[in-house]
Every structure is written in structure tokens, then in C-alpha cells.
Write a structure and sequence with these properties.
Number of domains: 1
Distance between the termini: 51 Å
Order of helices and strands: HHHHHH
Shape: elongated
Length: about 130
């Protein structure tokens, strides 16, 4: 079993496995950014499209389209910020500190909750569009 992820263990890993850390930063993070752009854009457009199809209840149908972009935008922002922090820490190990690691943990939680709620929003709007 490996060490639990923390400031010290991440610093050690980045310093010891420098090529792996750089490979993750240069190969995986760009793909993750591409993924988050496609997923966030899909969730936003799906939400606004489905909201436009809703006839009932009128309180939902009359909301401006920017309302439906709030959760997908929060997901896009938090995931991009998380990737930026990871990229920075993997390339410059001296930036791995307690506050940065805590911020990364917070961003990960926001990302998970916002994408979950954005999916729930799309599903709810999809159901309401059939009523």
C-alpha cells in the first residue's frame, strides 16, 4: 500500500518520479482540459435546450438561459483551476504547500458536486420536457 496523499507524499513523489510527474503534466492534463471543455459545454447546451422545450411549469420555462449555465460553468471553472494547480505543482515542486494542497482539495470537491448537480439538472430538465 502506498502512502496516503498529502503534502509530504506528493512532494516526495514529484521529486523522486520527476519523469512520471512531467509526463502526467504534459500528456494527461491537456486531455483532461479537452474533456472538461466538451463535458461542460454539453451539459450547458443540453440544459438550455431542454429548458426551452419545457411548457410546464411556467416558472422554469421563463427563466433566462444563463441560469442553466451556472452549474456547468462552475464545473468548468473548478476543474480547470484544479488542473492548473496540479500542473503547477508537478512542474514546480516548491509550490506544493499546505494552503495550495488544501485549495486543490476544495476545488476537487466543488468539481465533483457541480458536475453531479449539472447531470441531475439535465436529467430533471429532460424529464420535465416530456410532461
Amino acid at each position: 500500500m502506498g502512502k496516503p496523499l498529502g503534502v509530504a507524499s506528493l512532494s516526495d513523489w514529484v521529486r523522486d518520479e520527476n519523469q512520471l510527474a512531467r509526463g502526467y503534466a504534459t500528456r494527461v492534463i491537456p486531455l483532461d482540459i479537452l474533456y472538461l471543455i466538451f463535458l461542460g459545454t454539453f451539459l450547458g447546451f443540453a440544459s438550455t435546450t431542454l429548458a426551452g422545450l419545457i411548457d410546464w411549469p411556467r416558472s422554469i420555462a421563463g427563466l433566462p438561459s444563463w441560469v442553466w449555465w451556472m452549474l456547468p460553468s462552475l464545473y468548468l471553472f473548478s476543474d480547470f483551476a484544479e488542473d492548473s494547480f496540479i500542473f503547477t505543482m508537478l512542474n514546480w515542486p516548491s509550490t506544493i504547500q499546505g494552503i495550495v494542497f488544501d485549495t486543490l482539495t476544495c476545488l476537487r470537491s466543488i468539481k465533483i458536486w457541480s458536475v453531479t448537480l449539472a447531470f441531475a439538472q439535465v436529467l430533471l430538465l429532460g424529464l420535465l420536457s416530456y410532461i
